[in-house]
Write a sequence for this structure.
């Protein structure tokens, strides 16, 4: 029985864009990308995109990630 879902590089890049370029919560990003919130958290930690500083509803975007292309609607 598989516990997780393999994410392609494109899916990871999309999640990184959403973390860096939107005001969506982790839960909302998870719903939008059909991933568990824990997966979004793990990607955020790995790439250090958002810093929460102990708060759940406020964050600071790491300026080094600003070079990510923005999500296009």
């Amino acid at each position: 029985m598989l516990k997780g879902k393999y994410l392609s590089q494109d899916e990871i890049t999309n999640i990184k864009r959403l973390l860096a370029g939107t005001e969506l919560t982790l839960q909302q990003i998870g719903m939008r990308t059909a991933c568990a919130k824990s997966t979004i958290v793990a990607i955020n930690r790995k790439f250090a995109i958002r810093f929460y500083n102990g708060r759940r509803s406020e964050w600071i975007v790491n300026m080094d990630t600003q070079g990510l292309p923005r999500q296009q609607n």
User: Anything to note?
Assistant: The first strand starts at residue 50 and ends at 51. The beta strands are 50-51, 60-61. The radius of gyration is 12 Å.
